[in-house]
Amino acid sequence: MEVQGKIKVIGETKSFGASGFQKRELVVTTEEQYPQHLNLEFVQDKTSLLDAFQVGDAVKVGINLRGREWTSPQNEVKYFNSIVGWRIEKVGAQAPAGAPEVPPFDEYEPVSNSKNEDHDDLPF
């Protein structure tokens, strides 16, 4: 799945527990009639992906939805969801340096070396 919008907040990387679990939050505001402010999590080695981005950048984020069940000490069952980012790229970014520029369709030369016997024999 993907989410597209503008970066509103880029959080700091936080570490949790003795295992050193790392998490970094990103808030993306969608650009639609009713914009949504979505809190996305980048975890472990994916936290560094956010280093190349700034607030205000238009981005497309590859996400996974995660859900888990938790039972409280009082035996109440609760459910939690999270949106986990695993890829991020700028939207409308320029082509990589050295890539050939492709002209618009109407700037291509018409075909002039076709043979007369090449006719269209399609029945429609």
Give me the count of strands: 6
Strand residue content: over 45%
Q: How far is the N terminus from the C terminus?
A: 39 Å
Rg measurement, Å: 24 Å
| Helical fraction | under 10%
The average pLDDT value, as a whole number, equals: 83
Helix and strand composition category: mainly beta
The helix-strand sequence is EEEEEE
What spatial form do the alpha-carbon principal axes imply? Answer: globular
Count of DSSP-assigned helices:
0
Taking the sheet with the most strands, its summary is: 6 strands, antiparallel
Low-confidence stretches: none
Task: Jot down its keywords.
six-stranded antiparallel β-sheet, 6 strands, 124 residues, mainly beta
Structural features, described:
This protein has strands at 2-10, 14-16, 21-30, 37-43, 58-71, 77-90. The chain is globular. The chain is 0% helix and 46% strand. By secondary structure, it is an all-beta fold. Strands 1, 2, 3, 4, 5 and 6 form a six-stranded antiparallel β-sheet that branches. The protein has no helices and six strands.
